[in-house]
Amino acid sequence: MQKPQPGEVSSEAEIAQRRLAAIIESSEDAIASKDLNGIITSWNKSAERLFGYTAEEIIGQPVTLIIPPELHDDEPMILGKVRAGERIEHFQTVRIHKNGRLIDVSLTVSPIKDERGNIVGAAKIVRDITRQKKLEEAALRLAAIVESSDDAIASKDLNGTITSWNRSAERLFGYKAEEIIGKPVTVIIPPELHQDENMILSKIRRGEKIEHFETIRLHKNGERIEVSLTISPVKDDNGNVIGAAKIVRNITETNKIERALQTTEKLAAAGRMAATVAHEINNPLEAVTNLVYLAKRDLSNNDRVAGYLELAGRELDRVAHITRQTLGFYRDTSSPVLLNVAETVDDLLLLYEKRFESRRINVLKRYDKDIEITALAGEIRQAFSNLVTNAIDSMPNGGTLVVKVAKACDWSGSHLHGVRITVLDTGSGIEAKHKQKVFQPFFTTKTDVGTGLGLWITRGIVEKHRGTIRMKSKTGQSNHGTAFSIFLPAEYAGGSPQSSFAAGEPSTISTRGAI
Amino acid sequence: MKIIVVDDEPIIADTLVNILEGEGHDALAVSHGESAIKWAKLLIADAVISDVIMPGMDGIETAKAIMKSLPNCRIILFSGQAASVDLLAQARAEGYSFEVLAKPINPEKLLEKLKN
């Protein structure tokens, strides 16, 4: 090629070449070329910046200088392709900076041909994708976090159209991502709350965040879900709000538990009050009982009045029975003792033998006779006797009572060893609508004699012993009955004996006389 | 039997005395622990029936004092209040064991008990 003489007008080819050279030199991408032996033949400014070598330093050097040793094998492959006239596009690989740092790059390699069309080298465009790679990884990591989050996470644009939907959102609302993306967010908002959405969107447009906004949303099946929403504006690179990201937490269960706790606490307080009142009643009851006894004794020749007093006496006995039996007049203040469960249970069943006979109730006993636990004996008797009296009351026309005592392990996973006492009757069973309520104070179906405190007290005793109580009941025509099952740990780890009012035999604490 | 009945509610003590007298016992109603101890010693009572929670000296203190001077006197405590349980537990810790009945007592059962 002839050098242009001063004053001479450059040829068009020359102008084109200079233009190209200028473009290459000012390109943001690193551009270099090499011959077919892999020797670098040109090197632009961006290549200098990217790899740290100046053009003077590197031209004439093998290209392997900037290829990590473990990737040297790639080079013959690239050269082979170039020789075959092929172009390599966006080949993602790693190169080395002069200072040894690795750079993620995307290569585009094109063959260079001479005037006769022979391939004489390769031109490379190298783009630094380190930042892009990092962003991609960060995006993937974020996506994985969002996808695996237990909270439902979704996003919408400023028109309220849903733009993303994670797996928890699918679970919470019942809509698959593919069926809801593109739909208006009002699909999951109850009609009466649609105006809330305008409020939310206008806040988001102003760039404000909404935190822990408790509201109601709709499941696909129409069910209402209590949720807590946190909504943040999504901004583009220039800081413009382009949409909103929502985190939705289901608080239905939390709220349910909270309400149930409040109810239980209220009922428990009422139960305690009833117990206190019952105790206050005992003194006047004592006086009236004595007076009725005396009136009857001192009455002569008035059979009618004697009859009334007889009835009054019997009614008083009933009141006394109710205050004592279910409210467990005496608390068991003894210390926990080692007791044989089968013996304790069997002794108690003896008390009810007359009633089993008169009701034609057949009793089956299945005891593991060697189990011993440390427990408050009086309270355990009370708990067990409440179950037995319930079973008896459930079989007015006879039936079978099964009492089982067996070694057991805790159901709830604490793996405590202990005993399971099961009391099973063949009565009519507990109706489904009552099942939730049987352990609540004042719940009773025995309107004539029940106080509705028996099972509540039983559960209190069991829980005080760190045990559990379960109930199963069937009300079928041929298959009916109820089974209560108590688990008690072998070692007493419960609260202080004084903390409960329920327990013990109704009439005496100690049978030993003081003489 | 010579029986002292102690209760801070006179209607209870009086009616019980009446019931006991009807069965031929020699009974006396008092309303404080102190007078119970005094009369029990004076009459050499065979039995003392005492409320547990009373103003002043409680039933257990009364019972302990009577046991000291009259080791053969039978003592029956009766109570209508859960608070008595704590007092009884304390007495038990000190080595005392008392016969305790819950109010209201069925009068027939009380009479039956005294026969044994």
Describe this protein's structure.
The complex is a heterodimer of chains A (515) and B (116). Chain A is an alpha+beta fold and 515 residues long. Chain A has helices at 12-26, 45-51, 55-58, 74-83, 130-148, 167-173, 177-180, 194-205, 252-298, 303-325, 341-351, 353-358, 377-393, 432-435, 454-464; strands at residues 30-35, 40-43, 88-96, 102-113, 119-128, 152-157, 162-165, 210-218, 224-235, 241-250, 337-340, 361-367, 372-375, 399-409, 417-425, 468-475, 480-489. In chain A, 28% of the residues are buried. Residues 328-333 and 496-515 of chain A have low confidence and may be disordered. The mean pLDDT of chain B is 88. Chain B has helices spanning 10-22, 33-43, 59-69, 84-93, 107-115, and strands at residues 2-6, 26-30, 47-51, 74-79, 99-102. A five-stranded parallel sheet of chain B has the order 2-1-3-4-5, sandwiched between helices. The radius of gyration of chain B is 13 Å and the shape is globular. Chain B is of the alpha/beta class. In chain B, helix 2 runs parallel beside helix 3 (59-69). Chain B contains five helices and five strands, in the order βαβαβαβαβα. Chains A and B meet through helix 9 and helix 10 of A and helix 1, strand 4, helix 4 and strand 5 of B.
Helix-strand layout with pairing:
The complex is a heterodimer of chains A (515) and B (116).
Chain A: H1 12-26, E1 30-35, E2 40-43, H2 45-51, H3 55-58, H4 74-83, E3 88-96, E4 102-113, E5 119-128, H5 130-148, E6 152-157, E7 162-165, H6 167-173, H7 177-180, H8 194-205, E8 210-218, E9 224-235, E10 241-250, H9 252-298, H10 303-325, E11 337-340, H11 341-351, H12 353-358, E12 361-367, E13 372-375, H13 377-393, E14 399-409, E15 417-425, H14 432-435, H15 454-464, E16 468-475, E17 480-489
Parallel strand pairs in A: 12-14
Antiparallel strand pairs in A: 1-2, 1-5, 3-4, 4-5, 6-7, 6-10, 8-9, 9-10, 11-13, 14-15, 15-17, 16-17
Helix pairs in contact in A: 9-10, 11-13, 13-15
Chain B: E1 2-6, H1 10-22, E2 26-30, H2 33-43, E3 47-51, H3 59-69, E4 74-79, H4 84-93, E5 99-102, H5 107-115
Parallel strand pairs in B: 1-2, 1-3, 3-4, 4-5
Helix pairs in contact in B: 2-3
